[in-house]
């Protein structure tokens, strides 16, 4: 049998994990043609087809499934063995892959990562912004970021910053045309800018005051898919928006947006960075965890 390259086996694992050549190429930072050539060379060296290919999907053959079943723990053991060499280096090295929602990336994770990378020049950080809840182990991530109440029991969680708050905001122009609501119930008479989760459900708005909790389904003609778009629409006077405080604080301070229903704010749990409790933690990831645990939050 011709000699095999270890990275060809890793590429095969990535193609199956991501469900296609293009997604695997993006994950590895190479071209789709490079991924295809590597898989072709692997199949030729083994003398057997590992993947079913169609114009729309890629799936492992029976032989490919069997190889992947045996390959996954073996590649993990190789990575662990190589990572142990880090103890002989003065500085940790490697890549930390993290899956996190956009708001957590914008306001917490990215600033942390940039400061951490200045301290550790041999560590790479790969952040995938994704609002959908994914299996971080299955998808090849070292860690994920979610609210504390969304974490599985077999995960170790590290808090990222203080508790969060949503703000209800609108532009001065909109509020000149439509009197500000005095209670959550009055939002029914307003154009609310709605946001849709990746799974298709609409984000509900939650309020709390003096032990009185309210949750409403916002009504409005405009539905968007990101907080950045929602803020842009609010600044343009399209209606009332429901956004994390960090997205609107500067605009409120400069008078571009006005906060309403401020006395109805509900506190939310902080973000948490979580990682598997039963999986080897690499040197780069350990260094990042130490940095987060020692970080002085404002």
From TrEMBL:
SUPFAM superfamilies: Periplasmic binding protein-like II, Winged helix' DNA-binding domain. The keyword Transcription regulation applies. Residues 4-61 form the HTH lysR-type domain. One of its GO terms (biological process) is DNA-templated transcription. GO terms for molecular function: DNA-binding transcription factor activity; sequence-specific DNA binding. Belongs to the LysR transcriptional regulatory family. This is LysR family transcriptional regulator. It comes from Bordetella genomosp. 13.
């Amino acid at each position: 049998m011709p000699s095999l390259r270890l990275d060809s086996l890793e590429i095969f694992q990535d193609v199956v994990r991501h469900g296609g050549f293009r997604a695997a190429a993006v994950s590895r930072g190479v071209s789709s043609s490079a991924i295809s050539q590597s898989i072709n060379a692997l199949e030729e060296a083994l003398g057997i087809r590992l993947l079913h290919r169609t114009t729309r999907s890629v799936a492992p053959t029976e032989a490919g499934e069997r190889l992947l079943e045996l390959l996954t723990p073996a590649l993990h053991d190789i990575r662990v063995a190589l990572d142990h060499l880090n103890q002989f280096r003065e500085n940790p090295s490697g890549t930390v892959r993290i899956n996190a929602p956009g708001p957590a990336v914008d306001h917490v994770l990215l600033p942390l990562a940039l400061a951490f990378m200045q301290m550790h020049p041999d560590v790479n950080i790969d952040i995938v912004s994704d609002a959908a809840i994914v299996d971080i182990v299955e998808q090849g991530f070292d860690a994920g970021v979610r609210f504390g109440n969304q974490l599985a029991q077999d995960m170790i969680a590290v808090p990222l910053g203080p508790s969060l708050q949503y703000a209800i905001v609108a532009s001065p122009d909109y509020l000149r045309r439509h009197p500000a609501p005095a209670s959550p119930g009055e939002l029914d008479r307003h154009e609310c800018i709605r946001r849709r989760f990746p799974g298709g459900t609409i984000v509900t708005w939650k309020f709390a005051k003096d032990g009185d909790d309210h949750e409403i389904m916002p009504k409005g003609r405009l539905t968007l898919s990101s907080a950045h778009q929602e803020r842009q629409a609010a600044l343009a006077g399209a209606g009332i928006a429901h956004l994390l405080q960090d997205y609107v604080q500067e605009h409120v301070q400069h008078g571009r947006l006005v906060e309403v229903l401020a006395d109805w704010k509900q506190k939310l749990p902080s973000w948490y960075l979580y990682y598997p409790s039963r999986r080897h933690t690499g040197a780069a990831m350990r260094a990042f965890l130490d940095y987060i645990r020692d970080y002085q939050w404002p």
